[in-house]
């Protein structure tokens, strides 16, 4: 029997899946624009793995909650939901700031200066901060702690490869623009 909180979790997951499908459409459109402006793609090898990884994440969330009958943890679950919503806000702030330069692939248009506004004023990789937060919080909305642990650890390995490839592709202009910005945790400056 499906509980009320499980039904709400299923609805949340359906919205998350729809969001991902819309992001793929947006990414494909933006990729075509980047290629039309001379964009060069790198990181294709790990990209395929990343797509499979994130798809399995969505499946694992649902499978653990319903297959293992994970409980709703009250205040902890509400905190996880809050974290997941904050992650979505940060993701869309980053996507909105990048505009048609946002892409789920690594495509660099030569000669374009790096985007340094929006959340990029504070962090080099705000979208990846959102992904880390999401992979931790979404499963914990309904007690799927195994999924949270496995995919958070797996994502750390994936981001290690992804960020190195992305920063190498963006080159010297990016390195100079972001030399004093932290990668993941905003710096609190005094005075």
Automatic annotation (TrEMBL):
CC terms in the record's Gene Ontology section: membrane
Pfam families xrefs: ICMT
Cytoplasm keyword on record: no
Main location (coarse class): membrane
InterPro entries per UniProt: ICMT_MeTrfase, Metal_cation-efflux_comp
UniProt keyword terms in alphabetical order: Membrane, Transmembrane, Transmembrane helix
Membrane topology: Multi-pass membrane protein
Gene Ontology molecular function terms on file: protein C-terminal S-isoprenylcysteine carboxyl O-methyltransferase activity
Transmembrane helix in keyword set: yes
Spans through the membrane: 6-26, 47-69, 75-94, 106-123, 143-161
Subcellular localization, as worded in the UniProt entry: Membrane
Highest taxon, organism lineage: Bacteria
Listed name of the protein: Isoprenylcysteine carboxyl methyltransferase
Native organism: Corallococcus aberystwythensis
């Amino acid at each position: 029997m499906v509980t009320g909180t499980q039904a709400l979790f299923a609805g949340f997951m359906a919205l998350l899946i729809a969001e991902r499908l819309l992001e793929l459409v947006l990414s494909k459109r933006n990729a075509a624009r980047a290629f039309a402006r001379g964009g060069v793609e790198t990181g294709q090898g790990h990209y395929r793995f990343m797509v499979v990884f994130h798809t399995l994440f969505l499946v694992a969330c649902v499978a653990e909650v319903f297959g293992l009958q994970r409980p709703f943890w009250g205040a902890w679950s509400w905190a996880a939901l809050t974290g997941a919503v904050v992650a979505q806000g940060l993701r869309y702030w980053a996507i909105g700031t990048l505009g048609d330069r946002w892409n789920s692939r690594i495509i660099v248009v030569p000669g374009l200066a790096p985007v340094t506004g929006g959340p990029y004023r504070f962090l080099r990789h705000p979208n990846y901060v959102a992904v880390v937060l999401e992979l931790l919080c979404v499963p914990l909305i309904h007690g799927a702690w195994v999924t949270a642990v496995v995919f958070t650890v797996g994502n750390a390995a994936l981001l290690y490869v992804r960020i190195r490839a992305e920063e190498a592709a963006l080159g010297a202009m990016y390195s100079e623009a972001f030399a004093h910005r932290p990668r993941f945790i905003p710096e609190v400056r005094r005075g």
